[in-house]
Amino acid sequence: MGQYTANTYHVEDGQPVKVPDNELGHFFGDDIYIIDLNGAQWRYMFGWLGQKVEGDEKQKYFGPMQILTDYTLAWNCTRQAIKKNHEDEAILSLYDGVFIIHDGNRIPLNDRLDQIKANGAAYRCMSPFGKCGRAMETEKFDASVLNSGDVFVVCAKGGDVCYVWHGEGSNEVEQEIGNKVAARVAGGFSQT
Q1: What is the dihedral of CA 184, 159, 124, 132, to 10 degrees?
Q2: Residue among 146, 188, 143, 190 at smallest CA distance from 168
Q3: Are residues 113 and 80 in the same domain?
Q4: What would the pLDDT profile of 135-164 be if each residue is shown by its tens digit?
Q5: CA distance 51 to 162
Q6: pTM value?
């Protein structure tokens, strides 16, 4: 694709709203985002669907794409939907190799980090393709979900410590992703 610009938009009330730079790579699982890659000769637009979108609801992501292209259906613009947890290596690599999916609807990242510090949170880290990966917040977390092939980031309630658990069968990429996730969601914690 050569040189390109990459922008990420959160869809709010049917409108694309640019995601602030400090929030890039953080997605909320109940929402829709537009990932817009605009090159000199080609444009790729991806509707990231955290929520389930039925066939007749495609306007939820296609409408904001139309706004971003000024309602033009150009031959050199590819539009595609990506379901949560179906991101390929190219998409994951746009965010320094780590794609973090928080539970719920989008709130400002600083508010979400305050929630994590106060209430705790856990993320399962996966690297399905090789050099990049995703971390998905787990709804319920206890020791029974740990297995030797996983990496988990667990932030303790009260905000005083964050653990990165490397399962014996986890690979180096997943372990590095776990360390990056801990730094991004618990930067002020002491990490163990």
Answers
A1: 10
A2: 146
A3: no
A4: 999 877 777 777 788 899 999 888 778 889
A5: 28
A6: 0.90
